[in-house]
Amino acid sequence: MHELAHTINEALGNIGTTIDYPVQQSGGAKPGTLSELVAELNTGKVQELMILGGNPVYDSPADLSFTDALGKASFTLHLGLYRNETALCCGWHVPESHFLESWSDARAEDGSLSIVQPLIEPLYPTHSAHEFFAALLGQIPSSGYEIIRAAWKQRHPGEDFESFWRKTLHDGVAATGSATAADPAAQQPPAAPQGSVPAIAPRGGLHLVIRPDSFMLDGRYANNAWLQELPRPFTKLTWENAAHISVKTAQDWKLEHGDVVELLYHGRKVEAPVWILPGHSDGCVTIYLGYGRTAAGRVGNGCGFNAFTLQASDAPWGGAGLELRKTGRRHDFAVRQ
Questions:
Q1: What ranges in the chain are assigned the alpha helix state H?
Q2: Fewer CB within 10 A of the end CB, N or C, for the chain?
Q3: Domains and CATH numbers, the chain
């Protein structure tokens, strides 16, 4: 649908007149993919790996087998806010400062540059990514403020740097980082991502739909009890996820609300309780990410099932070919009235 809309806008000459796409900013070398990293870990091309934030041991597509690939590296280090699943699989873990405790800078999609200022001093002896790399490179000074200030001084040399620095901190946006107008003729609609539009489920089969949870997202907030207790839209479900199906699909498969089923998708499987949701599309099963954590903390551990178990790198949001088997067990949900 998105690709069709881009084609229509291009045919009508709307690009650059009524529609503007974000200007692509060149930021150096093109980043690689997680699949490429896993391949290089498996072949031994990558022997030392440092992971800045994130939790790929938990939330990477199951077909990549990232945990097995990570174990083949001779040196692994994780910089993060928490000792999550990835940190536990690495040889080293460095506590990271929260972004509200750190100095940094950022570039917006339109090219605007901004300096990020902390709101509070670090509560614990932690380090930002800037400070971490400065220590590795043996750079002095090493505080976040001095690192960011020195980097901007190189970009804006001259006697007026102090006034420029203070004005940028005051305004929030650097005067030299404003976006430049792009040539409308050079604008091209972004290509539709491959595998983002799954095929329609064949007659008699089921279609898997994978979505981030409204509050847990990809699991990063699983240890937040307030968000766990917050009822989900439409279902009022709390503290767990479920396999959502329509009334008709439940009748076709002879399922009842709370039945525990086994979901099988492309050779991978996970057990999930069934939630019958009126208005849900027929022939589809929707599951939400962010649950099934094992190293989230005392609040988030063991809540729900891990939907990433069924995620594939070539179809991260699901597709046709889902199989469903009844286990004969039942499950009671935690639901807000």
A1: 2-12, 34-43, 56-59, 66-70, 85-89, 129-136, 144-155, 161-171, 225-229, 247-252
A2: C
A3: 2-177 (3.40.50.740), 206-330 (2.40.40.20)
